[in-house]
Amino acid sequence: MSVVVQSIERADRKVIEALGEAGVATVHEAQGRTGLMSSRIRPIQQDFSVAGSAVTISAPPGDNWMIHVAIEQLEEGDILVLAPTAPCDMGYFGDLLATSAAAHGCRAMVLDAGTRDTRDLRAMGFGVWSSAVSAQGTVKETLGSVNTRIVCAGAAVNAGDVIVADDDGVCVVPLGRAEQVLEAARKRLQGEADRRARLAAGELGLDIYDMRPRLERKGLKYV
Amino acid sequence: MSVVVQSIERADRKVIEALGEAGVATVHEAQGRTGLMSSRIRPIQQDFSVAGSAVTISAPPGDNWMIHVAIEQLEEGDILVLAPTAPCDMGYFGDLLATSAAAHGCRAMVLDAGTRDTRDLRAMGFGVWSSAVSAQGTVKETLGSVNTRIVCAGAAVNAGDVIVADDDGVCVVPLGRAEQVLEAARKRLQGEADRRARLAAGELGLDIYDMRPRLERKGLKYV
Amino acid sequence: MSVVVQSIERADRKVIEALGEAGVATVHEAQGRTGLMSSRIRPIQQDFSVAGSAVTISAPPGDNWMIHVAIEQLEEGDILVLAPTAPCDMGYFGDLLATSAAAHGCRAMVLDAGTRDTRDLRAMGFGVWSSAVSAQGTVKETLGSVNTRIVCAGAAVNAGDVIVADDDGVCVVPLGRAEQVLEAARKRLQGEADRRARLAAGELGLDIYDMRPRLERKGLKYV
Amino acid sequence: MSVVVQSIERADRKVIEALGEAGVATVHEAQGRTGLMSSRIRPIQQDFSVAGSAVTISAPPGDNWMIHVAIEQLEEGDILVLAPTAPCDMGYFGDLLATSAAAHGCRAMVLDAGTRDTRDLRAMGFGVWSSAVSAQGTVKETLGSVNTRIVCAGAAVNAGDVIVADDDGVCVVPLGRAEQVLEAARKRLQGEADRRARLAAGELGLDIYDMRPRLERKGLKYV
Amino acid sequence: MSVVVQSIERADRKVIEALGEAGVATVHEAQGRTGLMSSRIRPIQQDFSVAGSAVTISAPPGDNWMIHVAIEQLEEGDILVLAPTAPCDMGYFGDLLATSAAAHGCRAMVLDAGTRDTRDLRAMGFGVWSSAVSAQGTVKETLGSVNTRIVCAGAAVNAGDVIVADDDGVCVVPLGRAEQVLEAARKRLQGEADRRARLAAGELGLDIYDMRPRLERKGLKYV
Amino acid sequence: MSVVVQSIERADRKVIEALGEAGVATVHEAQGRTGLMSSRIRPIQQDFSVAGSAVTISAPPGDNWMIHVAIEQLEEGDILVLAPTAPCDMGYFGDLLATSAAAHGCRAMVLDAGTRDTRDLRAMGFGVWSSAVSAQGTVKETLGSVNTRIVCAGAAVNAGDVIVADDDGVCVVPLGRAEQVLEAARKRLQGEADRRARLAAGELGLDIYDMRPRLERKGLKYV
After folding, report:
1. E74 by DSSP, 3-state: which?
2. Is D209's CB within 8 Å of E72's CB?
3. Any residues with CB less than 8 A from the CB of D203 and at least 6 apart, and which?
4. Chain B nearest C-alpha distance from E64 (Å)
5. How far is CA D208 from each of CA D219, E98, E100, E107, rounded to the nearest angstrom?
6. Beta strands of chain F (E only): which ranges?
7. Nearest to B159 by CA among B35, B16, B8
8. How far apart are the CA of F84 and the nearest CA of chain E, in angstroms?
9. Chains F and B touch (3+ CB pairs under 8 A)
């Protein structure tokens, strides 16, 4: 039942970088409002964005053994994504593991559990998105799996999916859709630039998006 | 049922500014410990204070259409206050809406729901207090109301009430009581300055407030 | 039932300082993973560590009277630790009390309740770890106790225990175990420095800790 | 600031009873989906409905003194509605207070706080809707108010408003709208009876409500 | 993006029934401790078990339109499983929809959202597992999908998967694994019957499972 | 670090039974409002009370091995009390363990974690108080301790302490105070019987407890 999938496909590096620049909110919109992790996943640092390929970890509650196993599977530009098999706020990840992961090319850690050594992690510039901060250590007794499909904070993640993370949270882009989502994201960003200029000039969304007739039809009353 | 009240009364600008300088904790005390929103409402920025007149929005869960409608009702110095009609952590508000609101004089957004584009919002210096951060977008399908009485995070808010927001949270001062609350706040601040000096010098609250006899009467034992 | 224990034992100042330098995660490990407060206790400031002797406060919900009583019991280097007798997010502690506590040698406040005036507290450099931020004030009507045994955020605390607090949370070291825990912490830190260097050089935890045979025995499959 | 309003208006007894028979879900719909308390308010008993006039209580956290004051203001058919001024799960209400309230005509208790003696309360047939069950007792030290406007679990309540409570939760009908809401509720119930028969016979909502063209227009694809 | 998959595969009726008799705890163990929904999903009734084929619904927050669409896709023995696209406690489902669903063969509703008319639903004997009870109604404005893959309360669900639900919660058995899981469940049940008899007779798990040597090896001390 | 204390003291059986009859709310009051577990600990059954001597278990998250160890330490009339070392909602306890525990004299299980097989447990008449219901099974890999001091749901528990549990929750009476608490509880019950009769006859608490002068002194206004 416990497996490590050693060979996974990854998206094109340039596509990944471009998705990271687009940011979570835009990417989430661009792929039809899917793939967003729960708002309980928060960054331990501010003004920090990252994108990379998911190396997934399914781990028992309070057991971080599989992170060691997963680190061996990392390639440059990857992001570790860990889902415990039951809710757990313990500190699965700290500065020693981050040092090891970074040495193997890892850019960030996303986990629906706790992290620790947060001050050191920020000093290292290693991005972490977690559902808790806790100094509580874990054991290494029970197996899990690496690079199998997981559900992390409500989002399904396959190994190799593109993870985009910034101050707004974490979004998962399925590997096979990465280019198409990027294209849609680019279109949104262009449209947004134009709309931002018009809104900044004082034009109303009510007019830009021609909302008035529809509001009236629905029955909105001005009094 | 869905209405937009177009003409609302506002408090005097100087009173509003002065309440903002007094800060949430002092204002809340000064008005008899009423009007405070729940502690789940947190700022997305640090060391930032604001005060303004409430333009209220009642919106369905996951639907931010009424924000567009409300922006047209803004005047210089207003604060948008949004309460969803059921608990919702979706991202109702982001940088585009902030750009539009700011262009119409808005100083801040307070909402018992999610916000997004938080990094951009901080960069803009547009203050936001919310109960969640989420990149999850909303739809524009169902009407709500603007400038009607709402309950936001446990506090009743009428259009035109003075909103004071800082690192400690958000407090609502009823429009009709703004001047009286300001006067009480000023008295508190004067008293506090004196007490702060005495406490900093090492005098004990037990003595300044003459608590010892009452503690003894209630039965406190020193062992 | 309401007592103030006036004379408490404290650990050696050098031991306390050294535990503070070791940090919460290390100290928690060094004492066998006990004494950690719940992850709901969060600092109001970042990149800030402290250690000191606990002066404990058991207080009714919404009543901070006993903090005034406790301040008289403070000595240089102490930390106030407050547990309400029922869950409460009200703002028990703000800048006036911090001014008074600091004047009596207090280094920090830890409370399973709310704090307020957070901006001022950060400006003062007075560390606070709390389960909420709230401007909601408290009353002074009902007695509690000072320097009796309390349970704060899931951790038992006796007066004089060493409190270590940093960005990862708060840990309690029993007074009688402080030196022994410090020794264990030092050993851990030495081991960590060595392991960090090896991990940074790319060596795998799988090899450093000789995990491969045990993983195989438990049945991990590489595919 | 602490007041007891002694004379309040109440709705017609027959209207109240009829609203109670209509039930929370129907009444909530009939008044435009307003007035519902948060889903954290749960009954301590099952298959139990009640309606009555609100006698409101604003009480400090952990202090049930005002319940004694409110009981003197009860009339036959009233319901006590208590909102603490900060979140609190303590047991404000138990079998002694229920005995007293029942002796003065009270039908039920609704509170955004804890209740205790739940087994006895069920045996008495005295309905309670609360946000917690807790044996934790309260003090009688700090004043609150009776029959002033409160916000209870997110719903604004004025003294004399009609409270409808059943297994689905608690809804507040403003006194001045009671008759109009009842009429709307009756219409809904008639329509529902007809629709229930058609749905039970296997007719689809898609057809009864003529949803197919609108679904198609919005772009729903059948594959 | 919004689709209704009309033709789905289902497991064998006898296999489904047998999984239902085995119960959630046994089935969850039998399939390697996967597929369990979060413990926030609770039944509105007691001592009630059911199993059936999943007809899945992805719905916007506060919008139950897709339930009407899904009912047309039901076959005898199915269970509706609804996941909102953002956390929502509103009452998506009540007695009218249950009447319609039951008329089309549906056995139960599982939803990570609210339900209402709970008393009527219990009286009908229509099983519901939900994350909230709320009278709050929803709108019919925004499309979702039917019979696509969803994540419901942390568990991935495909249309046609076997849903097993009882007092302990809800478990999802992938369609393709149903028979194999059933076989494993049967083996567990046989083993359990034997162990239950031995345990009831006073034999210790320590001896039945031969735990003593392993406990000693791990270092357990008896004092 | 992992120990099993084999010989523990217990309170007198008659005292234990009498405390159980007094009930949680009365016992909690009688011992000065201490020892109550958090309101998140709820019974899986209704109208059920029990009292017994605590056999304590400290267990890692997701690991129920120590329950097997603890069962060997049970005597007639004991109650198992389990605290995980980090928050965990997994199902540590089900009908097999209950069968074994009952065979060794155990009356009930109290745990700040999940339980499963709840329908069977109710059918067996074996009382369980837990913070969750979950079918999620646990492992047997990591040691904990039995009969050491624990903190369970906010209450400190020593082995041999008297546990009282009913519909209102769970209260811990320290072994050395059991008789004294019982005496205080009996006095309360006598006083309550008298007061209940007077309240049922319509006398007001305001008069029975002579509250009117104190209310007036504090400034309550009747309008």
Report:
1. coil
2. no
3. none
4. 13
5. 20, 15, 11, 22
6. 3-4, 42-43, 50-59, 78-84, 91-93, 108-115, 127-133, 145-146, 150-152, 155-157, 162-166, 169-173, 221-222
7. B8
8. 17
9. no
Give pLDDT tens digits for A191-221: 999 999 999 999 999 999 999 999 999 999 9
Whether the pTM exceeds 0.90: the reply is yes
Which residue among F86, F134, F136 places its CB closest to the CB of A62?
F86
What distance in Å separates the CA atoms of residue F61 and residue A90, rounded to the nearest whole number?
A: 9
Residues of D in contact with E69 (CB under 8 A): 206, 211, 215, 220
How many percent of chain A have pLDDT more than 70? 100
Largest CA distance in chain F: 67
Sorted by sequence, the CB contacts under 8 Å of residue A19 that are 6+ apart come out as: A27, A51, A162, A164, A173, A178, A181, A182, A185
Q: Which residues of C touch D60 (CB under 8 A)?
A: 62, 139
For residue D201, the SS3 value is coil
> What are the structure tokens assigned to D149, written together?
């406007």
| C-alpha–C-alpha distance, residues B14 and B22, integer Å | 12
How far is the C-alpha of C28 from the C-alpha of A37, rounded, in Å?
A: 30
Nearest Cα to Cα of residue C62 among C82, C94, C40, C92: C92
Placement of tokens 């506002």 in the chain: B10
* Contact by Cβ (8 Å): D119, F47: yes
**CA separation for the pair E32, A85 (Å, rounded):** 11
Bridge-partner residues for C84, per DSSP? C59
The tens digit of pLDDT for each residue in E153-179 reads 999 999 999 999 999 999 999 999 999
Q: Assess A198–E contact: CB distance below 8 Å, yes or no.
A: no
Tokens 């208790």 belong to which residue? Answer: D109
Rounded to whole angstroms, how far apart are CA atoms F192 and D44? 23
* B109 closest CA partner among B90, B150, B97, B85: B97
Q: Which helix (H) or strand (E) holds C152?
A: strand C150-152
Q: What ipTM describes this predicted complex? A: 0.95
- The DSSP output letter for E63 is B
Record the tokens describing residue F208, joined without a space.
């029975």
D25's tokens: 């879900």
Q: Any idea which residue has 């390697």 for tokens?
A: E32
Chains D and F touch (3+ CB pairs under 8 A): yes
User: What's the CA gap between F113 and F116, in Å, rounded?
Assistant: 10
pLDDT tens for each residue of E35-55: 999 999 999 999 999 999 999
- Tokens 């922006």 identify what position? B71
Please give the average per-residue pLDDT across B185-214, as a whole number: 95
Q: Which of C71, C104, C135 sits opposite B36 (nearest CB)?
A: C135
Nearest one of A122, A5, A119 to A66, comparing CA atoms: A5
Tokens standing for B52?
């303004």
What token pair was written down for C3? 């007592």
Distance of CA D163 to the CA centre of its chain: 5
Alpha-carbon distances of A57 from A8, A24, A89, C207, rounded to whole Å: 13, 22, 16, 19
Low-confidence ranges of chain F (pLDDT < 70): none
Residues E8, E10, E12, CA angle at the centre, nearest 5°?
160
The answer to whether residue A1 neighbours chain E at the CB level (below 8 Å) is yes
b/e per residue, C146-162, with b = 16+ CB within 10 A?
A: bbbebbbbbbbbbbbbb
CA separation for the pair D21, E117 (Å, rounded) = 13
What integer pLDDT is reported at residue D190 of this predicted model?
Answer: 92
